[in-house]
Design brief:
The complex is a heterodimer. Chain A is an alpha/beta fold. Chain A contains 19 helices and 25 strands. Chain A has a six-stranded mixed β-sheet. In chain A, strands 6-7-9-10-12-11 form a six-stranded mixed β-sheet, with helices on one face. The longest helix of chain B is centred in the first third of the chain and has 9 residues. The chains are: A alpha/beta, B alpha+beta. Chains A and B meet through helix 11 and helix 18 of A and loops of B.
């Protein structure tokens, strides 16, 4: 294994040789600047290394952070609802730096060409090895959404990621999209592949009939003689946001009263550090931290927020740190605790961006990834079209890649309008790149990919949009599901996030005419949560469209007009 | 998970036969509960009429009633609800769903110092306040919690 000195040497050589670095920018200015990115002196005696929502991205990719991530109610202008310069300012970061590229959308195309791709399991492995070298016994925690999001994960039922995570040395995991492979598949992996290696924990999954625990609620591990409890919190709204028929016998929910019970139980068993490995989403975690006591940190995911420093939440008995570690294996969170006299006396946290040009690829992981991809190479590399625009998904209302999907659905299906789910995963692309089947699958690889063409009244269309909008903008975080607004093609509208359900969506226009509540429209969509829905997989529909177009011109993004959001720091 | 208990109940499925018959609509609740069926209350179409049928005025808010129900229902057809009361002398627990066509869902009469705790599954047509009323010493108290019923999809 490479030690730290050797690693820094690699960085120095890389920088000196101009290794994939632009000559005009900060990366190239000195090896020291590059190495300071990963300068992480040992602190304390308990260390947790956390990644989350990698969405099965094994190779380095581009990922553009959002320019719209609005907070409502008490969350206006608060972390994580800061974008662009507002986020830089809040965390004392400078524009036009590698950090600004990692944490914001600012100058995305130029920064991406300068600093290169992010993430990748080989590079993440090297970073983990380096950080662990100074922190023997540090635990690696995976927040879930690991087995879904790529062609190879879908083709292998998540086996590629199961194997990669074992090699990576994951100690503890919780889940969300994992469950879309079905209850039996998750149980099989936990009882076989993970047995004795990875602890899959979830305090909030129980059987529908007797309320029995499905997985272990927590695990207690020892590090440097300190007992550390990790309690699992799976995505509470899995059977609502994803097909319920895939986990028919299980019930989820936030269950913060049961969480409190678990915290008290592990404290009773002697745990000196208690952390919750959560897939709630950051707003839910922040509320939960204010209600549940005795938790040192909630290491969160789901909402894909790259948050540089934890939010310190006060509650009745102390303070709980709340983090969120981004997505797509773009970041590694390092939380060091100094535990003295049986309790946490101090902490340090860094959310390290995984720059694939600055971190060497781990050879063993690289070999595994090549082996995983080999049977699918021709499919992965099938060329569909070339893009002239930056393609991305993330943002509250729409993204350019979603717009391409919407345009494809309307075009191929002959629909008046189209809906595409507000997923937050999906990689980004730069102008001039070729959209391969792999990149298309990054946006669409799910186990319920059917496309549909449905006749709906204008009233029903509004109902659906109001319903989804409330999942995003309900001012009580416990009613938020953590996805973005349903993407809408063909229909213009106005949205007032501060209003109540039923009153947010207005001014709905189709081809320059107001939508008629009683008229029937043809609406295309995909990802039905109902059982037994038939339809061509969305990737086939979009691939047909892309092959036909050959070139994707600059995309005209259909975004709603907004009411009451002027000056909101969650918007550029 | 207690797999043994589950298999045991599956093979001795007759235990729940009456409940199943009710759920399947084979038996109307009226036939089961004919003796004490409060038609006016159960068929009332508004919260106010349901209270009238039950013979209570609008109940006072109480913090001694705990309702455990999901924030968002996983399945509107079977929403788990638990109610417990610390109100001294609780003799009856009533569950109402404000926006259901017939708001009164259930009335549990407790006798001989039975523990004031009920756990059941209710059906909800749409997002609504779930209101739980407790009767004690001739007075009525209530607490409520909103349960959201959503169309689902589009998550994360």
């Amino acid at each position: 294994m490479m030690n730290r000195r050797e690693f820094l040497h690699v960085l120095a050589v890389a920088a000196a040789s101009g290794f994939a670095l632009d000559h005009k920018n900060a990366f190239a200015s000195s090896a020291a600047a590059a190495s300071s990115m990963y300068e992480l002196p040992k602190y304390g005696n308990v260390s947790l290394l956390h990644f989350t929502d990698c969405h099965a991205q094994l190779l380095p990719i581009y990922f553009r952070e959002p320019d719209v991530n609005l907070g409502v109610g008490a969350a206006v202008g608060k972390v994580p609802h800061l974008v662009g310069e507002n986020l830089l300012k809040a965390f004392g970061m400078r524009p036009n730096t590698p950090e600004a590229y990692a944490f914001t959308y600012l100058n995305f195309e130029k920064a991406a060409r300068t600093y290169g791709k992010v993430g990748g399991f080989s590079h993440l492995t090297s970073l983990i090895k380096m950080v662990k070298a100074q922190r023997p016994g540090a635990l690696v925690l995976d927040g879930g959404d690991t087995w879904q999001g790529s062609l190879t994960s879908l083709e292998t039922n998540g086996q590629d990621m199961v194997d990669a995570c074992k090699l990576l040395g994951v100690n503890v995991m919780t889940g969300h999209w994992e469950f879309t492979y079905g209850a039996d598949r998750v149980k099989h992996v936990v009882d076989n592949d993970f047995k004795g290696k990875v602890d899959f924990v979830a305090q909030n999954i129980k059987t529908n009939d007797f309320g029995d625990q499905v997985f272990e609620p927590y695990v207690i591990k020892e590090m440097n003689g300190v007992p550390v409890a990790i309690i699992g919190q799976a995505f509470p709204y899995t059977p609502i946001a994803n097909p319920r028929h895939m986990v028919p016998d299980w019930t989820f929910g936030i269950q913060d009263d049961n969480l409190q019970k678990m915290v008290d139980e592990v404290r009773g068993k002697g745990a000196q550090v208690v952390v919750v490995l959560s897939h709630n989403g950051m707003d839910v975690d922040l509320k939960m931290a204010s209600r549940v006591t005795g938790v040192d940190a909630i290491l969160g995911g789901h909402t894909h927020d790259g948050v540089p420093q934890p939010v310190q939440v006060k509650n009745a008995k102390g303070v709980t740190l709340v983090t969120n570690a981004g997505s797509n294996s773009k970041f590694l969170g390092v939380l060091d605790f100094d535990v003295k006299n049986g309790k946490v006396a101090g902490f340090k946290y860094r959310l390290l961006p995984v720059f694939s040009n600055l971190l060497p690829a781990d050879k063993e992981m690289d070999a595994l990834i090549s082996k995983i991809r080999a049977p699918f190479e021709s499919k992965l590399n099938e060329k569909l079209a070339v893009t002239e625009d930056v393609l991305y998904r993330r943002g509250n209302f729409n993204g350019t890649f979603d717009q391409v999907i919407l345009d494809a659905l309307m075009d191929v299906k002959g629909a008046d309008m189209a809906f595409s789910p507000g997923f937050r995963w999906g990689t980004s692309m730069l102008p001039g790149e070729t959209i391969t089947m792999e990149r298309l699958m990054d946006q669409t690889a799910i186990t319920y990919p059917q496309t549909t063409l449905t006749e709906m009244t204008g009233e029903r269309v509004k109902e659906i949009m109001e319903d989804v909008c409330d999942n995003l903008f309900n001012e009580d975080p416990y009613y938020q599901q953590g996805g973005d607004m349903v993407r809408v093609g063909g229909l213009q509208y106005t949205c007032n996030p501060n209003a109540k359900i039923g009153k947010r969506i207005s001014n709905m226009m189709l081809n320059g005419k107001p939508m008629d509540a009683h008229k029937t429209y043809k609406v295309a969509g995909w990802a039905p949560v109902g059982e037994g829905v038939q339809g061509e997989p969305v990737w086939d529909v979009v691939a047909t469209y892309l092959r036909d177009k050959k070139v994707i011109k600059p995309v005209k993004l259909n975004e709603p007009g907004l009411i009451g959001m002027k000056g909101n720091p969650g918007m550029a | 998970m207690n797999q043994l208990r589950r298999s045991f109940l599956k093979t001795t499925g007759t235990t729940g036969a009456i409940a199943v018959a009710v759920a399947a609509g084979l038996l109307k609740p009226t036939e089961v509960l004919a003796a004490s069926w409060n038609k006016n209350a159960f068929e009332a179409k508004s919260l106010a009429d349901a209270y009238k049928g039950l013979g209570v005025a609008a109940p006072a808010d109480s913090k001694d009633i705990a309702i455990k129900a999901p924030d968002i229902a996983e399945n509107g057809a079977v929403v788990p609800v638990e109610v417990s009361s610390k109100v001294a002398g609780t003799s009856s627990i009533v569950i109402l769903v404000e926006k259901n066509a017939n708001p009164l869902i259930a009335q549990f009469d407790l006798a001989n110092g039975a523990e004031p705790f009920v756990s059941t599954r209710i059906k909800m047509g749409q997002t609504s306040m779930v209101r739980c009323m407790v009767v004690a010493g001739g007075k009525s108290f209530s607490a409520s919690k909103e349960v959201k019923v959503t169309i689902g999809g589009c998550g994360g």
